[in-house]
Design brief:
The chain is of the alpha/beta class. Strands 1, 2, 3, 4, 5, 6 and 7 form a 7-stranded mixed beta sheet that branches. The longest helix is centred in the N-terminal third of the chain and has 16 residues. It starts with a strand and ends with a helix.
Length: about 190
């Protein structure tokens, strides 16, 4: 497989591509992550991922394959972003406690004029979390850069998640097996 450009600073996406042994280099450019109102959850994630891919297109060699992704968390069809404060992180995890939420990752792969765009959905079910568990996690792991205020591969995921319906790695930030299959199509 040819080397791709990963338009993401996410250490989790980097790790997943390394595990999949996909050759890549990281190139990022500050991108507006706002989106038009009225989009569905999958359209929202794809829109933001597309903005990330298009932002780096002018700064990479012509003919490069660019991969960008964006992960959103939704509870009852309401998008939950990244917490801006400890109190907001506590509020988010309290809302997720004992409930099902959906993680949607939009992925966009661009090579010149060709584009592959898709979104992957995973339902995550949390056990009831105590106030002490939530505060311990937030104070120790500082999940302020994570949609939904948590990372599935950290302590809160290990002790707090009851079940996952869908791609586990999608919750980490990239449905990597699907991405690899799409890259092989584009590379082929």
């Amino acid at each position: 497989m040819n080397k791709i450009i990963l338009a993401s600073q996410s250490p989790r996406r980097k790790q997943l591509l390394e595990w999949a042994e996909v050759p890549f280099e990281i190139r990022v450019k500050e991108t507006d992550e706002s989106y038009p109102t009225g989009l569905t959850l999958d359209q929202t994630a794809i829109h933001i991922a597309r903005q990330k891919a298009l932002a780096v297109q002018p700064i990479v060699p012509a003919g490069s394959i660019i991969l960008a992704a964006d992960t959103i968390v939704a509870l009852n069809n309401r998008i939950i972003g990244k917490p801006k404060s400890r109190d907001e992180a506590i509020e988010i995890l309290t809302d997720l406690s004992g409930n099902k939420h959906t993680v949607i990752t939009g992925a966009v792969i661009i090579k010149e004029e060709k584009e592959i765009a898709f979104a992957d959905f995973t339902d995550v079910y949390f056990h009831e979390l105590s106030k002490d568990q939530i505060e311990f996690y937030i104070d120790k792991y500082k999940p302020y850069d994570k949609a939904g205020a948590y990372a599935i591969q950290e302590w809160i995921g290990v002790i707090g998640i009851k079940s996952v319906d869908g791609d586990f790695y999608n919750v980490m930030g990239l449905p990597v097996s699907r991405v690899v299959r799409e890259l092989m199509k584009l590379n082929g």
